[in-house]
């Protein structure tokens, strides 16, 4: 059932090109002009009534929500709050009929997320679930559902669910942008073309995993690893850090790169691996300054950058390149080497990859 792979996690990492293709199937207009969501069928009036979006989720799905905030705010120009489900439900959220509450959950059974969904409904919000499991509790409770169609995810560490959640929220943002007229048609088309290229690019990335494997073996016995990035790269850093912690038990921290000098820089000492994501062009120069700050403390820096970026090599010790893509699509590719890093680090340390200690696939207790 693992199809020749040693663990479910690595099988699921490799299933990503197919999973992300399935998520998009039937949802992109043939002429690339817009996203089609037959399951939503919203009108311009429906969308004009959405004054605010709140996204709630747990763990990896919460990290997908953080990326979703960038997508929905920047492309559809709707204010978005992202909240951890177990926090949302106890903070008397300012949610009403003009709020769209989005919950994201692979399993559709996470009890905190389900409770947050019920709370949002009680407050009168319109609700939308993004989930992978047809007929799950969350799918049944929400007013509307977008299925991610990633196929069953067995490994406790979420991989293909995350990438398909990102695709789903991006498509939702483009769908809303079209109805609200917040993006020029050419820009929508450009992003849809970029989406279509992703399965092939993810496949390309998975063809050459040797460098990542080598870094994992080389640094797999360090006790602390830092992940830094700005903007969307920061959101991906959070997910990379969680992945590494949960399966390899290496202590990892993700930091918005500009925040390092407000305290955390004290922890960067000689030899500490720092994974620096630098895929976002609008903050690229700022990111290079942050890389220089950690290099000055003798950290070992592994840069994650887009193919064609020769500049980065001057500043880092090693580089992992992802295929060149739009800044909004970069997270979907950039997370893949981080998933692989976590996987190979866990294998190097002899950890039980698919069933990490103390964790359950679906958390149905509070
Ligand atoms: C991390 C992981 C967890 C889940 C979280 C939410 O790899 O798997 O953090 O993402 O427990 O689960 P779902 O998405 O099923 O609600």
From TrEMBL:
Coiled coil: none annotated. Signal peptide: none annotated. One of its GO terms (cellular component) is cytosol. Keywords: Aminotransferase, Cytoplasm, Glutamine amidotransferase, Repeat, Transferase. It catalyses: D-fructose 6-phosphate + L-glutamine = D-glucosamine 6-phosphate + L-glutamate. GO terms for biological process: carbohydrate metabolic process; fructose 6-phosphate metabolic process; protein N-linked glycosylation; UDP-N-acetylglucosamine metabolic process. Homodimer. The chain holds residues 244 to 609 of 609 of the full protein. Its EC number is 2.6.1.16. It is found in: Cytoplasm. It comes from Thermosinus carboxydivorans Nor1. The active site is at residue 361. Catalyzes the first step in hexosamine metabolism, converting fructose-6P into glucosamine-6P using glutamine as a nitrogen source. This is Glutamine--fructose-6-phosphate aminotransferase [isomerizing]. One of its GO terms (molecular function) is carbohydrate derivative binding. Residues 43-182, 215-356 form the SIS domain.
């Amino acid at each position: 059932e693992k199809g020749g792979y040693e663990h479910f996690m690595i099988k699921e990492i490799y299933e990503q090109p197919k999973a992300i293709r399935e998520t998009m199937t039937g949802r992109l207009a043939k002429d690339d002009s817009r996203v089609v969501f037959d399951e939503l069928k919203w009108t311009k009036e429906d969308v004009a009534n959405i004054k605010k979006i709140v996204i709630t989720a747990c763990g990896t799905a919460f990290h997908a929500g953080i990326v979703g905030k960038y997508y929905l705010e920047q492309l559809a120009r709707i204010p978005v709050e992202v909240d951890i489900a177990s926090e949302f439900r106890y903070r008397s959220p300012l949610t009403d009929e003009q709020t769209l509450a989005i919950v994201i959950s692979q399993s559709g059974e996470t009890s905190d997320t389900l409770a947050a969904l019920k709370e949002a409904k009680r407050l009168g919000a319109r609700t939308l679930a993004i989930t992978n499991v047809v007929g799950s509790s969350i799918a049944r409770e929400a007013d509307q559902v977008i299925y991610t169609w990633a196929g069953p995810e067995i490994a406790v560490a979420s991989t293909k669910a995350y990438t398909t959640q990102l695709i789903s929220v991006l498509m939702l943002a483009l769908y809303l942008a079209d109805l609200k007229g917040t993006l020029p048609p050419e820009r929508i088309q450009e992003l849809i073309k970029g989406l279509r290229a992703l399965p092939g690019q993810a496949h390309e990335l998975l063809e050459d995993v040797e460098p990542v494997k080598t870094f994992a073996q080389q640094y797999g016995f360090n006790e602390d690893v830092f992940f830094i990035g700005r903007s969307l790269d920061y959101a991906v850093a959070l997910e990379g850090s969680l992945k590494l912690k949960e399966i390899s038990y290496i202590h990892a921290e993700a930091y918005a790169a500009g925040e390092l000098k407000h305290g955390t820089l004290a922890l960067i000492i000689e030899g500490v691996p720092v994974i620096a994501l630098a895929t976002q062009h609008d903050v690229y120069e700022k990111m290079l300054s942050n890389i220089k700050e950690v290099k000055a403390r003798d950290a070992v820096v592994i840069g994650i950058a887009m193919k064609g970026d020769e500049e980065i090599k001057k500043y880092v010790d090693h580089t992992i390149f992802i295929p060149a893509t739009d800044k909004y699509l970069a997270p979907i590719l950039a997370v893949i080497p981080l998933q692989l890093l976590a996987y190979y680090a866990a294998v190097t340390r002899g950890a039980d990859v698919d069933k990490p200690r103390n964790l359950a696939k679906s958390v149905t207790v509070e």
